[in-house]
Amino acid sequence: MNTPSNSTAQSTSSVKDLRGRDPSYHTTDAEYTLPNDAVEYARLQHQAIGLDEMMHNKSVHAPLANPQQIVDVGCGTGIITRQLGEKYTNARVYGIDLSPVPAGQTTPNVEFILGDVRKLIGSHPRLVDGSTDFVFSRLLVLGITDWQGYVKDITTIVRPGAWVEMQDLAIKLYLYGSHCSGDWEWMKAIYAAAEKKGWDLQCGTNIKGYMEEAGLEDVVVKEYRLPFGTWLAEEKPETRRIGKHAAREYGTLYYHAIPKMLQGMDYTQEQLERFQTSCLKDMAGREGLEFRYYVTIGRKPGWE
Description:
Helix content is 38%, strand content 20%.
């Protein structure tokens, strides 16, 4: 376990290293705060592998039979899109993202679509009403500003009997099972910004309600523990890789996200830098610290 002095020293050193990076971002008007540069793409690849291991290599939980069209929303590097294409060879698989997907080996049944899914639904020929057998998304917590509207839109493009699966966090940290992030000043600032801009930082636990409001049935939630570090690995060895990733990367991720998330909130540069330093300290890998990760699936009523 890190002592307070060790954590502070580590965070101070990290600040010096992090200030040399100048991340790039997408150029649309969508409220998505994370970078789209090579460093972020590498992080997303490692994160996807770790999440799959955490879930016992079960990246998809919905009981799919023989899907003919699959949509992966917010596909990032396209790693899950390509996995879906390899697994469901009879399906056309479309990955959608705000930024161009990096080049990579792709099966012939996979295609990537550039744009904001809320604007594409109903206008793109592959995203019309009742066109899709399965819609998948992962970690859109900082990319959606109207979850109720988003889930309703997604529901329109799936066929009767088709499944929707959304995997996401609630941005709420626990230490030995107790909520510990509620009093962190930088976290309170982020929550205030979220309320103003429309993010639902508890979407992981709220998606079930959004699905039910949109008319989906058979809604089921599966909860996973996502630790910072390897302290849970003896009990749950499947968390080792994602735990290492979280301890190494998540503080850095939020360090860079804080100024962008807090744009328009009238904080001074000094306040932003203080939030960033505190974020690195609070999110350093330490025993007992964890996120909760939620997988929610729902089915559109009726059968073809």
